[in-house]
Amino acid sequence: MSFESIKNISLYIIQRIVLTIIALVVLSFITFSLSYIVPGDAALVAAGPSAGKEKIEQLRVEMGLNLPFYEQYFVYLTKLSRGDLGKSWFTHQPILNDIKDLLPASAELVFFAMLFNIIIAIPLGVLAATKRDSKTDFSIRILVMIGAGIPIFWLGLLLQHFLASETGLFPIAGRLSFSNRNFEGSTGFLFFDSVVQGEWGVFWDSIWHIILPAFTLSVLFIAVITRTTRSTLMRALEEDFITLARSKGISEYRVIIKHALRNALVPTVTILGMQVGWMMGATVLVEEIFGRPGIGKYAVKAVTQSDIHGVVGVVLIVGIIFIFSNLIVDIVHLFLNPRLRKNSIGNL
Amino acid sequence: MFKLFNYLRSPIEKGAMIFVVFIVFIALMGSYLAPHDPYEANFKNTLSAPSIDYLFGTDAAGRDVFSRVIYGARLTLATTLFVIAIVAIIGIFVGIISALSGGVIDNLLMRFTDIWLGFPPLILALGFAASFGAGMKAAILALIFTWWPNYARLSRALILETKDKDYILSAKAMGVPNLRIIFSHLIPNAFDVLFVQISLDVAAVILVISGLSFIGVGAQIPLAEWGAMIADGRSASKAWWVVFFPGLAILLTATSFNLIGDVLRRELDPTLSKVKNEKPS
Fold it and tell me: If you count Cβ atoms within 10 Å of the first and of the last residue's Cβ in chain A, which end, N or C, has fewer?
C-alpha cells in the first residue's frame, strides 16, 4: 500500500468520524426537542392536575424549564453524557437500566434475523443471477415482490396462529419455556449463555422460541438482499475478468463463487450493515406479537402509557446503533473495495 | 398510461396492473361500493363469519369488515400519495439546489442527507407519537422526516447528469431564464426515473403506515385503516377474518405496486439499461 493510499484512507476515515459526531449531535437535538420542547408544559404534567400555581412554578425552576432553550439543551447533553435518560413512568426505573436489560433480547432477535437473511437471500440471489431470465429467476422475482409487499406484523400473526397456536410446532410467545424460566446468564444472550453453562436444553429451547419471530423480522430484508445480490452478481458476471477466467477453463462454480461473487458482495455487505439499524427499528412490530421482552416491545408499551422519556430513550439508542453500524459499514466497505480506496477523496 | 400496458410481459405483471387500477377505483368510489356503513357498530352481530350479507364477516363491534377494507383503500392510498408528494417535493428542491450550486453548499447538503438517509422511520414515529400524541399526524411526520433524502440524492444525481448537456448550455447561452430551464428541461428530464422511484416507494410507505397503525401509533381504532383493523382483530383469535382480509388487502396492494414499479424500472430507468447493453469498461 502506497503512502498516498494510506493518506487517502485516513482522510476518509477522519471525515466519516466527523460526520458521525455531527449525526450524533443532530440525533441528540431531535430527542431533546421531542422530550422537552414539544409536549407543552412539562411542569404542568409533572405536577399533576390538582397542583397549585406555586407548586407548578417551583417544579418549573427545578426542572430547568425557566432556562433559555440552548441552556436546557446543554443540561440535556450533560445528563446524556452521564447516561441519564430519565426515569420511566411505568417501570419506575432509570430508562438506561431498562434498556440495558432489554437490549440483549432484541439484539439476539436481530442477530438471528440477520442469519436467516444471509443464508436465505444470498443463495437465492446467486441462483437468480446464474439462471437469469429462466423460470427459476422469474419465481424468485415474484417471491421477492411478495416479500417486499407483505406486512410483517400480519405474517407474524399468521405464522403464530398456524404454526404455534393451531399445530404446536413452535412455541407461541416468550424467550424460553415455562420450565426454563429461572435460567439466567451473564450476557443476556440466551443461546450464548446456555452454551457457556452447558445447558443444552435451554439452548435448544431459546432457538426454538426465536425461529418464528426472527423469520418474520427477516422477510422484508431477505427481499432486498436477494435483489441486490442478483443485480450485482449479474453485473459482475459481465465483466472482462470473468470472461478471462472462463476462457482459462476454470469451472463455472469456481468462476461464480470465487471470482464474481466476491466482487458482487461488496454492495450487499453495505446494505446488510444498514439493515442492522432498520431491523432494530422493526422489532417494534415483531416483539409485541411474540411476547418477547425487548426494546421494541418496551417502546410500544411506553407510547401507550404516554411515557415520553421511555420512548425517546429507545429512539436515541436505536439511532446510535444505526449511526454506528453505518460508520462500521463504511470503514469495512473501504477495505473490501480497492477502487474506493484510491478515488474516495476525489468524490467527496 | 397506455404505453404502460405494452410494458407488461407476463400474466402476473398484467394481474398486478389490473389490481392497481382496481384498488385505485375502490379508493375513489369506495363510499358508493361499500354495502354497509364501515363505522356502524351492531352488538347483536359481532364476530360473525363471512356470509353473503357480510362478505368478509364482522368485527368485535359488529362492523362490516368488507366495507371497512373498502374504506381503508382510500385512507391508505391518499395518505401514501400525500407523503410521497411531500417528500418528492422537498427532495427534488434540495437536490436541485445541491446540484446547481455545487461546492460547499452541495457538500453540506449532501452530508446532511447522509445523516438522515435510511434512519428507521418506525422508531422515529414512536418518538413523534409520544410527543404529539398518536395518530396519522405522527406517522406522516415521521415518514416525511425520514424519506426525503432518497429523492434529494436521486434528483441531484439526475440534474448533475443533464445540466451540462449541449441543449441546456445552448438554452442558457440564448438567455433562457434559469428557473425556466429548471422547470421545463431539468425536472421533466428527471421525471421518468423519479416516477420509477415513486412507484417503488408506494409499497414501502403503505407498509410503514399500516405497521405504525398496527402498533397503535398511526390511525386509531375505529378508523377504517388496514393496519389498525388488524390490531383490533388480534383479540378475537377465533375470528380469523378480522385479521386476514385487511392484511390480504395490504399484501396485494403493496405487491402489485412493487411489481409495477419493477416493470417501470426495467423499461424506463436508463441506468439499468446501460448495465444491460454497455460493455463494462
Answer: N
